[in-house]
Amino acid sequence: MNLWQANEYVWAVKQARRREDDIAIVNACMRVVVNPATLNIEDALLVYGGMAPTTKIAKITSQFLLQKKWSENTFDTAANELYEEMKLEANAPGGMVAYRQVLTQSFLSKFFLTVSSWMSPTNISLSGKEKEKSAVFPITRGETSGVQLYQIVPKSQKVEDLIGRPIAHLSALKHATGEAVYTDDEVPLLGQLHGALVGSPIAHGKIISIDASKALALPGVVEFLSAKSIPADHNVQGHIIDDEEIFASEYVHCQGQTIGIIVAVDPLTAEKASKLVEMKFEELTPILTIEDAVKKESYHAVRKLRAGNIAEAFEKADEILEGEMRIGGQEHFYMEPQSCIATPKEDQEMDILMSCQGPDYVQKLVAKALKIPANRVKVRCRRMGGGFGGKESRTCLVSLPTVMAAVKLGKSVKTVMNRWDDMVVTGGRHPFQCRYKLAITKEGRILGVQATLYSNGGCSSDASPPVMEKALMSIEAVYTIPHWDMHGFACKTNLASNTAFRGYGGPQASIFMENIIDAVAEKVGKSPVEIREMHLQQQNGDKSPMGYVITDCMVRKCWEECVRGSNYQERKAKVDEFNKENHWKKRGITVTPMKHNVGFHMSLLNQGGALVMIYTDGSVGLNHGGTEMGQGLHTKMAQIASRALGIPIAKIYQSEASTDKVPNATATCASMSSDLNGMAVMYACQKLAKRLEPFKKANPNGTWEDWVGAAYFNRVNLSAVGFFELDLNYDFDNPQDLRRDPQFYVVYGVAVSEVEVDCLMITKGPGMYKIPSMGDIPRVFNVSMLRGAPNPKAVYSSKGLGEPPLFLAASIFFAIKEAIKAARKEVGLSPLFRFDAPATVERIRLACEDEKVDKVKEGMKGSEGKPGWAITQINMDFQNQLLNCEIQHLGQMLQVISGELTILQDFLKDKFGPDYELFRESVVSQQHASTSSKSATEFQRGHVPARKSTSSRKDESASKQAQEEEDLASDMEVGSESDVDVDGNEVSSSLRMERGEMVNSQRFENSNKRKKRRREMQESDFDNEGSVMVENTDDGNEANDGTMQETYPQSSSKRVRKGGRQRSRIWQEFTRVGDNSWACNHCKKEFKCPQADRLDRHVFKCLTGEKPPKKNPVKRSRDEGTTESVSIGEDQSETERNETTSMNSFLESVPSSSGRGRKLDPVWAYFTIREDPVTKKKTADCKNCNLTIKGKVEPARKHFYACHQLDEEVVDDKT
Prior knowledge:
By secondary structure, the protein is an alpha+beta fold. Among the domains are: about 10-135, 2-Layer Sandwich (Enolase-like, domain 1), CATH 3.30.390.50; about 300-330 and about 435-575 and about 585-595 and about 760-815, Aldehyde Oxidoreductase, domain 4 (2-Layer Sandwich); about 605-725, Aldehyde oxidase/xanthine dehydrogenase, molybdopterin binding domain (Aldehyde Oxidoreductase, domain 4), CATH 3.30.365.10; about 875-910. It is about 35% helix and about 20% strand. The strands form ten sheets. The protein has an eight-stranded mixed β-sheet. The protein has a five-stranded mixed β-sheet with strand order 12-20-19-18-13. It has a four-stranded antiparallel β-sheet with strand order 1-2-3-4. α17 packs parallel to α18 and α25 (about 915-940) packs parallel to α27. It starts with 7 loop residues before the first strand and ends in a 12-residue tail after the last helix. This is Xanthine dehydrogenase/oxidase.
């Protein structure tokens, strides 16, 4: 916008992976001043973040724009200059190299279009280009709205019957107020200890040694357990097969694999000690990707599924279409991390409280590891803070080490994983790859599908085989295709074992099928919606690839209602019109169906149990085999019990899931928990209701409490067990066995989604997995249930809806793809292109190909170098990824600080007026004085003309690096902030802040001068003895006639910043060998309690073989406060040659002041000023020795010289 002055325009932009609260990938701020009469650019500045370790100014492009005409041609040419200026190496830190380079040009184009729109309407820049103006207007969210439609219960339904009524989660208030108790919230037992896991830092290797001595030496550490702490036959575990260890014994197979557990008195000590365990490995080559696994034939399982005759399909086909697609993994990111409390009891009992989806699974693992009966192990779970499959089988990682520690120490042990370790070691959703070959007709009918699916299972089998089986059974989606030939490979790699995740392989397979439909549509020139509708399954009679006949298929009814209710045809017409009128923004809309098979295809898992108890006061205790993780399972079970018993829900209470109440329960997963456990609860309640029926008939006007009391007095059992089982199965080894269905029932759904994409920069897309925020909710979100579609198979017509709705979000993915197609078609590109999931901002922008993307891709052809360490598909080095994030965050902070300093400078100018300029002159003059003296001493100490010892020689690159580090340290020094002036007056905080800003500005200028001098030195000719001819300058003025300098060693006298104080660089030439004893790095001579000037003289003699010059005061000007540089040559006197090195060191750090007017003396930076509240007299405390002196300049300077071991003989108190 137009901010500072007329015809000045400033525009800023940020591109991140998520709309809110995310670090920028690339950001920029641009400024121009345009002459309105001539449209010439009089001033320009382009600044980018995310393209270098620090903010980068596009100097060449900014200079190019000067005095150019404000026009599209100018900025097109400028884009070429910018591309060359902002090029990145192929392995640049942060990854996304092509995308970041494209963003820099996209930002420039958007800047031109935006500023053009701000100018006068008569501006010719956008005349005749209405479609270009779409880039100017940002994508605005607007007000969010939503509608949820559900059926109203009949009026005859009793008030206490809550089935079908919209009720709140039973723990909703506890969640909202923070009263809900999770595992880590439990009150600790007396003497309870805390565990922290020790994980492998490498992906694959042989363990050489494990040393926990440093960890055990830490106060508060009690024990360290590893594979050596337990018998070998106790150190095995696994989900389906025993292919894992509790503690790695000989080899590690993934980063983070558990090697041991530290036990301490508190969690912080345990966490700290876990980082002190030292491990050595013989690293082995890891298998990381699906391609690596396929090449080495490394698989957990191989499955195949065939139907029909695929050879016949290819013979009849008009077209053969081949393609490939990938979908990445996903982190569970539950709010509560993995946590466990293990408490040993008498008679080998073990009580375990933990956050888990399968208490029965934990019970079996613990009993097996401890070699005790399962009846001695009780596992409890009150609630979880989310699970999504991540707490189904991978709870073994925290439960087993914790139990082992508790057994060995005989005390309760609590282990709660931190978020970092949880994400590293627990795995997530399986990444998938699909390669397909299709037999299609010219009308778009798919005759056959030949597909090969690969999943990255990680280091152990865990759930990888059944996940692949679920994927093969789900790839048909809702479509009727006669011929199938599918193979599935669960790859074994050296990543953390991937595991169950919401959908269990179904979403990955379904998105592959939708992508196939999309590819067919583009191949035959039809709409994907038309091809989908063509292949939808009929309500009854079609056959699935598994061989069973489909019945009660509701997908067509859902399709028709969703298309009609969303006004799809009308919306599609508006989308097409929008795309014709806008070049840089495109919209997409699509319809996507969904099908989810509910039920375990392994029969043993299809069982559920419940225990219902009625107490004599009429209250009911409800127990079932499911666990509560926020999905509302306990609420649903209470609704079932309420109807079955005919009582209000307030009389029913559920405390926790426990293996001593309901044994052998199936884990809460696969959208089956309500069906399995709900039917068991209903059966148990029906038993109790039947037992109470005689007492109801005997006393029809009685209350619930009356009937319960009467039953108790008549010795009627008021507790009942319910059990439910299903006979489902599908055998991949015997696919012809169709005696049992592979699913209980099927859930169908359809979604219509519309999106808008900014083709210059994407501002709404998702990225590498981010927790969804408020901005990710659809602006219009309408949900409805299909009417007249009861489910007679499940309890009270229930439907499993935990996982099915997940895939409906794929409609967003394909709507984005439709928008990208519109952008590609407009520039003449094929709409048939590969687009992998997830649809990150990078993939979306690069798919919207234009001249900017083509330019970057062409420039990157043939680029060599290792891939960057920030990789989307796989990232082993998590520490590097964290460092990258910290570097980006630091860059953002520096940009913010820079902007704030600019604003502060303008504020101070307005507030202080002439006083501000006076102060600025004071600071600049002091800084010039410091620079002059420092410049002289730098060149006088720069090189040694005589011989050097071999150990002191350094190569040119090391010297250059040391010089750059020295300059950087000097540039980063903070300006001194005195609290009082020479008259004892206090200085305001705002003035001190401004002083800091101006000093930093001057340092930037001085840094450039130093770099210029260094370049001049490098270009000079060296003589045979290694000395160099230099010009000693004082603020850019020539001095000393270019005479030869005789010098100290470069490293012997410079002062550098260290620990917040200045210290002589001479100490770098010595090594500490004892208390206050130092040894020379060159001759090994030792010095006891040495002073810097003594060491200075020794190093000079050690390196040159000559005696060092004697001390002599440096001549100084009282009026100007500057040092007169002394040129030393062969014809000069001995007195002139004797310069004081310690005084020069002082002058580098503390510039002098004339003491006149309100100029501030820098010496006060080394003191803390105090004022007596009664006498108002000021004193100063030395920050080095804490000695208190008078608040006067002369005593302060005198004490400073003495305290910092500077020679008093050269001190002139008046200066």
